[in-house]
Write a structure and sequence with these properties.
Blueprint (H helix, E strand, L loop, with lengths): L6 H17 L2 H9 L5 H14 L17 H13 L7 H14 L2 H13 L4 E4 L15 E4 L5 E9 L9 E7 L10 E7 L5 E7 L5 E14 L3 E2 L5 H16 L2 H17 L1 E2 L2 E2 L4 H31 L6 H23 L28 H7 L10 H12 L3
The structure holds flavin-adenine dinucleotide (FAD).
Length: about 400
């Protein structure tokens, strides 16, 4: 098997790199490369530049304004933009609710929402989990009652762990519309404008002291019945379809390659027994193993993306990507912590230049090491915990 890129793919890679260098704000790239926190505008500035170029709808069909790229081109785009320090494209609209609207939404929903997702005008968040309903998602309780004239729903309840909900214009929610039959059969999929009266967003502060997730409360929120996707009580089907798209995106191969580069850099700066840590055979082995795992994940990702184009939806194999991708991300943050050693102790938040006095570590590569380490504990939990993914692989991929 020849794993090298063809001349056409190499030319595409060069194009993507030139475009990124010309249009990505260097201040944003610096933040990303150092691992600093990004603001809403940092994400959106890059999103808008890509939109002008027609490169936002990666994985979308061309009929909806997508790039129509094959698996390899998608991967090259991800790898090169990540390497240059581009922020991720926030997935909740582009990679999660958009495929649901394309496949199960009506024409009015497609016409209204898809262009605004593509342009970045609407930032979406995900309202699936509730207190007590995470892995056991179908037990969710947030209630949507249809009005007697059928024109709207009244929504009451709470969602939790809502990532970047503080920035969102819209939220897609799983709601309970019936208590009859199996619990999966009483769930519906609603699109809700975050400006609707009765919605309150409350921050949850994470281990790294950052505001990344939220509780979202709904108190008699009036939602037009036209915001229902597909059929009432059939939401579980759409919810599962969306989850496989979410898991595909979590692999983060491009980002991992960038973290590997930073790890090499830190290991060259750091000293162990009077020598650069990178010369320590045991530590070098650990980096090599992580890189081998990453290479294997990359090939698996290409296979899954390719199969997805045939089937028009990711299969349960997306769970494999989620498990391996999240584990590799955690390993890389652990190795970076080990390499930084005592320099990782003072976690320096963005904007705070109080660098500790550690002579053998002369640059800023260590600054976010502990913040990342703590933050990345999340990766094996979100998007459906890895234990649940292993159950899916056992049943649906291995057929056991
Ligand atoms: C940082 C972060 C961001 C998130 N963002 C969002 C978001 O934007 N929107 C959203 O809707 N949700 C979000 N989530 C929620 C996430 O999807 C849930 O946390 C996840 O599904 C696990 O659910 P839980 O936290 O309720 O844990 P639980 O379901 O209570 O699980 C607790 C433990 O038990 C294990 N377990 C449970 N059931 C089984 C089983 N059957 N077999 C084996 N082990 C099992 C789990 O693996 C886990 O280790 C986010 C979570 C985090 C941490």
């Amino acid at each position: 098997m020849d794993l090298r890129y063809s001349p056409e793919q190499q030319a595409f890679s060069t194009d993507v790199r030139s475009f990124t260098r010309a249009h990505l704000d260097p201040k944003v790239a610096k933040k990303v490369l150092e691992g600093a926190r990004l603001e809403r505008e940092d994400y959106l500035g890059w999103h808008r530049s890509l939109h002008k170029k027609g490169w936002v709808g990666v994985g979308w069909p061309t009929s909806y304004g997508g790039t129509g790229w094959d698996a390899t081109h998608q991967h090259i785009f991800d790898e090169v933009t990540a390497d240059e320090g581009a922020p991720i494209l926030i997935p909740f609209g582009l990679r999660m609710v958009a495929p649901v609207i394309m496949n199960f939404g009506n024409q009015a929903q497609k016409d209204f929402h898809l262009p605004k997702i593509l342009s970045g005008e609407h930032w979406w968040c995900q309202g699936y989990s509730e207190p007590g309903s995470g892995s056991d998602l179908s037990s969710l309780k947030m209630k949507a009652e249809r009005s007697s004239d059928g024109t709207h729903y009244i929504v009451n309840g709470q969602k939790t762990w809502t990532t970047l909900g503080q920035h969102a214009d819209w939220i897609f929610c799983l709601v309970r519309t019936s208590n009859e039959g199996r619990q999966q059969e009483g769930i519906s999929f609603l699109l809700i404008d975050m400006k609707t009266p009765g919605i309150t967003v409350r921050p949850i502060i994470m281990l790294d002291q950052e505001h990344e997730v939220n509780e979202v409360w709904f108190d008699n929120v009036k939602v037009p019945a036209t915001n229902l996707v597909g059929e009432e009580n059939k939401g579980w089907t759409y919810a599962k379809f969306l989850l496989s798209h979410e898991r595909n995106g979590i692999a983060g191969v491009g980002r991992c390659k960038r973290i590997v580069k930073r790890l090499h850099h830190v290991a060259q700066q750091a000293y162990s027994n009077g020598r650069p840590l990178i010369e320590d055979a045991r530590f070098r082995d650990k980096i090599a193993q992580a890189e081998i795992d990453l290479r294997a994940l990359e090939i698996t990702l290409l296979r899954v993306l390719d199969a997805e184009r045939e089937k028009h939806a990711p299969g349960p194999e997306a769970s494999l990507l989620k498990i391996k991708g999240s584990e590799i991300q955690q390993t890389l943050t652990e190795l970076t912590m080990m390499a930084a050693g005592p320099a990782a102790l003072p976690y320096v938040r963005e904007g705070d230049n109080g660098a500790p006095d550690v002579p053998w570590l002369s640059d800023e590569a260590y600054r976010y090491a502990s913040g990342h380490y703590f933050n990345f504990r999340k990766t094996t939990i979100y998007g459906g915990s890895n234990e649940i993914q292993r159950n899916i692989v056992t049943q649906l991929v291995l057929g056991l």
